[in-house]
Amino acid sequence: MAEPITEGLFCVDADGSLTLVGGYSPSSGLHHFPRSPVCPYTGADDVREVDLPRVGALWGWTTVTGAPPGYPGEVPYGMGVVELATGGGPLRVVGRLVGVAPDAADASWFGTPMEVVAEEVADGDGGTVLTWAFAPDGAAT
């Protein structure tokens, strides 16, 4: 398995399932991702590391048709915003969409249950790195 794109963003279980690692600030009552040492909403320094929910709802999406600078992988690909339900209200996380054709999502996809999954992507040096993505819930292999 490839190395994580950045340490501390997620953990991967022995079965390959991925869990995003976020932050929670008791003073604000809000979650955030990626985790930072201070609350991005209030500046409080009481942030605790928490595992975020693995399933959420598709909130928004687009198709990327041009490679971002330095990205050697294939285009097009889907990008989405998935809303995760946390105890402090919804948290929206951006990630690649997998398991669906990049241009297949239309208005009927709004609210589709999505699961966070592990995905290997090209790293620009001829290798791969591990990152998170979202797939329709139950479609992860």
Explain how this protein is built.
This protein is mostly beta strands. It has no helices and nine strands. The protein has strands at residues 10-12, 18-25, 30-32, 48-51, 55-64, 77-86, 89-97, 113-122, 128-136. Strands 5-6-7-9-8 form a five-stranded mixed barrel. Strands 1, 2, 3 and 4 form a four-stranded antiparallel β-sheet that branches.
Largest sheet: 5 strands, mixed, barrel
Percent strand = over 45%
Structural category = mainly beta
Give the ordered list of helices and strands: EEEEEEEEE
Q: Number of DSSP strands?
A: 9
Measure the end-to-end span. Answer: 15 Å
| Major sheet strand order | 5-6-7-9-8
Q: Count up the helices.
A: 0
Given as residue ranges, the uncertain stretches (5+ residues, pLDDT < 50) are none
Q: What helical percentage do the residues reach? A: under 10%
| Global geometry | globular
